[in-house]
Amino acid sequence: MPALLAPAIVDGGFCFGPLDAVSNIIANAVRHLPPSGAHVEEFGMREGFTKDGDGEGFGMSHPFANEAVQRSIKALVGFLAFYFRYLPTLEAQHYLFAAKGDLLAAVHLVEAERCTGAFDVGSHTTKTALRCAAGAAGHADLDSLVTAMRSLSDERTLERCTKSLERVLLDKIHGFYLEALALLPQDQLRRRYHRSVVMAGHCYGPLDPVSNIVLNTIWYDAAFPVPNKKQQPELDMVGRWALIRAERRCLVGLVAGLRAFAGDHGLSEVAAIRCLLRANGDFATAMSVLQPALLGHRQPTTMPSESELHRLMAAMAQRLELYRVMAVAAQHPSPDRLHEFLLSDRVCALRTPWESRRFSREDVRSVIRSLDLEPPPPLGMPSELLRLTTQAQNTIKLFPDAKKRFCADMSSFHRKAKAALDDYVLQNMGPEYVMHVVCGANEMVADRDGPEYSSINWPLSFNKLHYSHINFLASPVCSSAADMSPTLFFAECVNYNEESDRDRKNICCPVVVPPTNAERVRCFYCEYNGMSIIHPVDGNYHGCDIDFEKLARQQHKMNNSIESVFNRGNYVTNSNGPVQEDYFYFDHARELSV
C-alpha cells in the first residue's frame, strides 16, 4: 500500500461510511493523513510497519491489521446501536453481517424490519449516533464523517426478526394512547376515565386503534362504574405504571388475536409482531396484510377501504371470537362482557355508514351520550373475603401508603409541569394555557455531568438526579378551546431547589407524536428507566447526546453498556405484576368477581 496510507489506515481508516467497505477504508484513511510535508520515513519507524519488497510502500503486521478491523467493527456496531432504539449490539452485528459490512445497507435492513423509513442524515439522533460511533472506535474526525454520511439513501430489506421489535410496537401503541387521551373530554378524563383507560381501554376492536381505546374506555366506565363516586377523586395524572402495563397487555392481545386468525398456518409470535408493524398497529389492517399470504395469493397493491376493513373485522371477530381471544390474552377485567359489547348492534349503530373507522371529537361526545348502560347488579362481599389470610391483611395495610405515594408523585409532577408551562407562556408572550393531565413522567434525569453524589435521596439512593422529563396535555384559554384537541407538551423540570440548582432552568415546548413510520429521538435516562416520553426533535434536553457518547466511551457514571440500557428498560415494559395505581383503583367486591 502507499507509504503515507499505511499508518493512516490504522489511525482512522475504518470501514464506516456511505461507500463499500474497501472504499470507506481508503476514504477515511485519506481524510486522516497528516499535514502536508510530513516525512514518510517517520511512519516507517513506527513499530509494526514494514517496507514492501519493492521498497515503494509499507505493510502492516498482523496485530496492527487486527486493531484496524476491531475499530471498524466498533464504529459500525456503535452507529446502529446508538441510532436505533432497543437494538442490542449482538443484533446490530447480525444486521451488519447480513449487509456484508455495508453500513447504509444495514441501516435500511433495520428500517425494513421495523417498518420505518424516515432515516435523516441531518437529524440530531443521527449526529449523536455518529459521535458515539467515532468515540467507540477512538476516531475524532467527526466533521468528515458527518459530511460523508449525508450521501446515505435507503431501500433495502432483511428477512429477520428480533425481540427488540416488541419495543418498537410498544412505542406505536403508546402513541395511540396519547392520541386517545387527547380525544377524550379532558374534564371527564380527570374525573372518570383516568381509571378505565388504564384498566380496560385496550386498542383492539372494530375501529382504528385510537378510537378503540376511546370506545373501550367509555364502555368500561359505564358498565363497571365506581360503586361510590366519592371514592374516585379528580386526578391530575394518568397512572404512568398502569399505562405502561396496559400498553404491554394490548401488544399481547393483538399478537394472540393475529395468531388465532392465522389458525393452523402456525404464525409465530415474531411474525405476528412484524405483520402488526407493517399495519402500523392496526389489527384489521394486519389481517388484511396477512390474509393473502395465508391463502397463497400475491399481496395486493392497494390497501382495502375503511368499509372493507370493517367488514373483515366484523366477520372474523364473529367467526373466531377474536375479541374474546384478545381480551383473555390481554388480561381484560371482563373479557366476556367486552366480547358481547363489541359484537352488539349498539356498536354497529355507532358508525353507519362505515366510511371511517376513526372517531372525531363530536363522535366521542356522541358515544358518551349513547353508552348510558344500566350499571351491573350490586355485588355483595365475596365469601373469600370474610376470612382474610394473613398475607391479604398485610397487603391491604399497604393501601394507604401506596395511595400517598401516588398522590405525592402526581402533585410533584403536576406542580413542576405547571411551572414550566407558565415559563413557556411568559417567554412566548401568551396565550394562556389550562393544564389537563400528566401522561408520562420520569423523575430520574441527570445533567451533563451525570448523577451527583448526595444524601438528599437517602436511604433510597446516594444519587441526586437533577431533572424530570414530563409529557402533559394542555389547551389554550379561549372561547373555541372546547372544540380543539389539547396540545401535547414536553417539559424538562428542575427537581430540587437547593443552592446548587439555582442556575438550572425549566424547558417546555409543544411536541407531536412521531409518525408511525419514523424512529423517535432518543433519551438515555428515559430509555434506561423504561419510560415512553415524547421528546423535542431538536435535542434540547438532557440525556440526548452526551450521555450516549459517554456510554460509547464507557465513561458513563450510571452504565457502560448499551445492552444494559436495553435490558433494564425491557424489564420495566415487560412487567405484568401489580403496580402502584392498583392500590388506588382496587375494588375488592368486583375484582374477585369479574
From TrEMBL:
Pfam families: DUF3615 (PF12274), PIR2-like_helical (PF20235). Residues 417-536 form the DUF3615 domain. Residues 5-111, 171-288 form the PIR2-like helical domain. This is Uncharacterized protein. It comes from Oryza brachyantha.
